[in-house]
Specification:
The termini are close together. It contains 11 helices and 12 strands. The longest helix is centred in the N-terminal third of the chain and has 16 residues, at 32-47. A hairpin with a 2-residue loop joins strand 5 and strand 6. It is of the alpha/beta class. Strands 3-2-4-7-1-8-12-11-9-10 form a 10-stranded mixed sheet. Strands 5-6 form a two-stranded antiparallel sheet. The protein is globular.
Length: 357
Amino acid sequence: MTGPRTSRYARDVAVVAFAQSDHLRRTDELSEVEMVMPVLHQVLAATGLKAGEIGFTCSGSSDYLAGRAFSFTMTLDGVGAWPPISESHVEMDGAWALYEAWVKIQTGEADTALVYSYGKSSPGSVRDVLTRQLDPYYLAPLWPDSVALAALQAQALVDAGETDEPALADIAARSRADAVANPHAQLRGAVPQGDYQVRPLRTGDCPPVGDGVAAVILAAGDLARQLCERPAWITGIDHRIEAHGLGLRDLTDSPSTRTAAQHAGLFDAPVDTAELHAPFSSQEVVLRKALGLGDTVAVNPSGGALAANPMMAAGLIRIGEAASRIHRGASDRAVAHATSGPCLQQNLVAVLEGDTR
């Protein structure tokens, strides 16, 4: 083992373990703490670490989904916050919690980090809840929901000649077919495209609503090799944001994804795997173009967000799934992407590599 092929940072940091729950349409019988605890136990067991040996803990979730302020403090019961731990939280997808944890390790203030995220979308209407992230003066008062905005983006792609409805159906079918091999996916196998939700998007082009949890452990340097036979080294990571106003953006492109990828070093060498956080089939079209992915790249071999889209965890799952393929030798260099906001507004790109063989 000679280490990751490239490194642009002060410290080499790797994903050494990943765990996730089974993603279900409803988990009415479980609290957030009861959802989180088994996944935390599983990811810690994969490394042999105990909670007290983790240098930093960071979580991602949304108070809007939970329906109460500071809801994340409840799940700390599942982590074990006594004796006192170094802990933080982001009101974002867990991919951004991972970014904060990665920065913490880069500063030298920790050598290991536990990152977890979770979301229970089932209790309410996600389409309505997500309108609250829109511009409060001009757009939010119109109450355009998340599917309507995604359909606006899809129609822009169709009008520009970059895709059509059969091509979108093929993306959805491929994703659900790949998900057959993923025991945690919510939707697996042949799923009918169904009726139009908002033209040109049919039910099959949209993500399932469901509940789920994900967790990863990060470690630095030689410690990563002690904890994992083949660490997934984060050789590049960056995140960028588009203009808040949808009218200021070209919805057929994602410059922020491309810029994040450039700063993460994606274009320095080919990748063999891409885990893209594309909740709608049309968004995969945009992301493939922005990241320059060819037909030889395995895109969303886990099934992606079209097979399971637990809010606040789906982006972290993309990083975890890409890392898992490196862990088991199915990938040597992978890109993972996470998004938040309407029409790919905020985008994070991570490049992961295994030790050269």
